[in-house]
């Protein structure tokens, strides 16, 4: 089907259909909805070269994917991309994915923007004083950050979850249950979300006169194997922790395996709370002992970031530039009172 046939089907002029597809603000919302619905039903695809000439837009969102020896695929990032895709497909937007060594990401972002192949870009894996932020602020291409950096003014568009609040709530619950010996299995220590989660846990413990010793903090890639290794190490301590905080249900999967192999009972001998990104293949309620979690959907975050970027590109609506989502604390069987007889 071509543009002429689509316009005849809808009883609209070719100009109106084209303007609806290209996000012109003078096309009302109902007409745009009719056009997009017809596009989905008929499978119509505009000539992208002609569309770019007419609008000056590429119809693409750019992202830089870190890759190097020792960096493995990340199920969390995949779920986030699925959310981006859910929204992008509604508006016939594409992704331009540029691989980069982690040390070169700022330069790669600049090159991607300079190529003219993207209308907007999003950033992830935020670090302390992240150099990509000032670089992108100096350019004209719209961007949204998933997360927030640390140590610089928060004067850029972002969507983040309250990582500090999430792990404050989790640690406070365990302290209220009488636990006195804690451990944290966290993400890589150079990433901002991991810094904030450690900060939240320490703040809650300090309010109860407790500490989180360095030997009870483990930073690593968020994989099953790293969770297992961390938990094994903690169980070998002279005073093993009875309360564990995990930055992911993937880490928790390995931690629970180590707990089971040690002959301990989750929720009785040891309590555990994990952060749940709502990964469809790893639901906390399906663990042998259902996990207590802090919860916020990565897929929903991806959808929202794509919605914000595309709305800005197509002038569809004005959306918030900065969003900090609260997490839900879901209590299940993996948390219980501190076991009797443990040393204070």
TrEMBL record:
Q: Which InterPro entries match?
A: HTH_LacI (IPR000843), LacI/GalR-like_sensor (IPR046335), Lambda_DNA-bd_dom_sf (IPR010982), Peripla_BP_I (IPR028082)
Example GO molecular function: DNA binding
The organism's place on the tree of life at top rank = Bacteria
* Listed Pfam families: LacI (PF00356), Peripla_BP_3 (PF13377)
Q: What keywords tag this UniProt record?
A: DNA-binding, Transcription, Transcription regulation
What residue stretches are annotated with the HTH lacI-type domain?
1-55
Put simply, this protein is called LacI family DNA-binding transcriptional regulator
